[in-house]
Specification:
alpha+beta, 3 helices, 4 strands
Length: 119
């Protein structure tokens, strides 16, 4: 088993509780840590037995830029489930979603959540 990590994938989307978040949108950042058990030995050097991270990125993008979610927790869970469904070689997906412009009454770098699937 090994891990594939996609770090700091950036997307513009319109998630959040407040109407202004939907109207204005903002950038979201996603990390995916995928625990992979390859379908064929790594020595075979074949993409067919593992996770194509270009396809994984596209799947993350489709979800993040798609349907509005009120909670980034729900968004992270949807990404994790979709990646596990798309790639049976993934035994566990840990997805972190960062929201730099979270509507909080103070100064912070970002808010982030991490969700793992299966739980």
């Amino acid at each position: 088993m090994y891990k594939i990590r996609l770090k700091n994938c950036a997307f513009f989307a319109r998630h959040g509780l407040h109407d202004e978040e939907e109207r204005l949108g903002q950038r979201f950042y996603v990390d995916a840590e995928l625990s992979v058990r390859p379908a064929v030995p790594l020595e075979e050097d074949a993409i067919s037995g593992t996770v194509d991270y270009g396809v994984a990125f596209t799947e993350i993008e489709r979800i993040i830029t798609g349907k509005r979610r009120f909670l980034i927790e729900a968004l992270a869970l949807e990404v994790a489930r979709a990646l596990c469904k798309r790639f049976p070689e993934i035994e566990r997906a840990e997805i972190t979603v960062r929201k730099p412009n979270a509507p909080v009454p103070g100064v912070l770098d970002h808010v982030e959540v991490t969700v793992a699937w299966p739980q």
